[in-house]
TrEMBL record:
Catalyzes the conversion of 1-hydroxy-2-methyl-2-(E)-butenyl 4-diphosphate (HMBPP) into a mixture of isopentenyl diphosphate (IPP) and dimethylallyl diphosphate (DMAPP). Acts in the terminal step of the DOXP/MEP pathway for isoprenoid precursor biosynthesis. GO terms for molecular function: 4 iron, 4 sulfur cluster binding; 4-hydroxy-3-methylbut-2-enyl diphosphate reductase activity; metal ion binding. Pathway: Isoprenoid biosynthesis; dimethylallyl diphosphate biosynthesis; dimethylallyl diphosphate from (2E)-4-hydroxy-3-methylbutenyl diphosphate: step 1/1; Isoprenoid biosynthesis; isopentenyl diphosphate biosynthesis via DXP pathway; isopentenyl diphosphate from 1-deoxy-D-xylulose 5-phosphate: step 6/6. This is 4-hydroxy-3-methylbut-2-enyl diphosphate reductase. It is an enzyme of class 1 (oxidoreductase). It holds the Pfam family LYTB. It comes from Pikeienuella piscinae. Keywords: 4Fe-4S, Iron, Iron-sulfur, Isoprene biosynthesis, Metal-binding, Oxidoreductase. GO terms for biological process: dimethylallyl diphosphate biosynthetic process; isopentenyl diphosphate biosynthetic process, methylerythritol 4-phosphate pathway; terpenoid biosynthetic process. It comes from the Bacteria. Isopentenyl diphosphate binds at residues 46, 79, 129, 228-230, 273. Binds 1 [4Fe-4S] cluster per subunit. It catalyses: isopentenyl diphosphate + 2 oxidized [2Fe-2S]-[ferredoxin] + H2O = (2E)-4-hydroxy-3-methylbut-2-enyl diphosphate + 2 reduced [2Fe-2S]-[ferredoxin] + 2 H(+); dimethylallyl diphosphate + 2 oxidized [2Fe-2S]-[ferredoxin] + H2O = (2E)-4-hydroxy-3-methylbut-2-enyl diphosphate + 2 reduced [2Fe-2S]-[ferredoxin] + 2 H(+). [4Fe-4S] cluster binds at residues 17, 101, 200.
Amino acid sequence: MKRSPLTLHLAAPRGFCAGVDRAIRIVEMAIQKWGAPVYVRHEIVHNKFVVDGLREKGAIFVETLEECPADRPVIFSAHGVPKSVPASAEARKMLFVDATCPLVSKVHIEAQRHYDNGLQMVMIGHDGHPETIGTMGQLPPGEVLLVETAADVATLEPRDPARLAFITQTTLSVDDTAEIVAALKARFPGIVGPHKEDICYATTNRQEAVKAMAPAIDALIVIGSPNSSNSQRLVEVGRRAGCGYAQLAPRADDIDWRALDGAKAVGVTAGASAPEVLVEEVIAAFRERFDVTLEVVETAVETVEFKAPRILRAPAA
């Protein structure tokens, strides 16, 4: 049977960011150093394929520290944790490794600095997301006010409107966040912002690549898990950029092929916690169904790399 021609636009950058790569390496190095099992508080990154692979190697994923025995190592996920979590681990004399992404840790440090200067925080983020919980948990209750939309800004009741600063979750939509920041500055002209953008380089770069390809494609496939914030944002960015159809697909088997009937050009990208092997799987699935021409849409080159914590690194020779 003759296959229809299809141009597959492949976003670059896509997939793993430096923080995700570091977090996965931390779990693998911990298993190698201390043997299995190693406990991980929350999914190390939001991708089922990655989590299942680490589980097979000897990682046990739990949601609370209380589920971890005191005599086995525990790793905190890349999303970050409230200050109470390492404090509890220390009280139990547990061996723990913090895999929090350094760019999330930067936001934590920033929040603490503003608090030390007497400012109350406004956090732009998603309620209930582990990163938001971890960041808000860096400061005492009531010191961080959460907003999810520009409309939320109107209902804020800060302690002192003249003594405010804002921080953001690192995986948000760049455009949505800009809208919320504008609303904050309009209502609180003196609000202090971050020295450098809190939304991480990888989130920004992946969104820019989707925007660049959107005018040329009929549909967009974002490879990523449903609980991945940055992957969900890529779907939204594609739709807003004019892509007629955008779908989140954890694996090739999850693609709704009927929705792609008649498509001549399809974009493919992957969230920051989705490995390249899943991208290759999706490309292979397209080749089985279409006569594929592959075009790479490159909008940035990423060279960022984060080292694993010293406790896991081999001593210098």
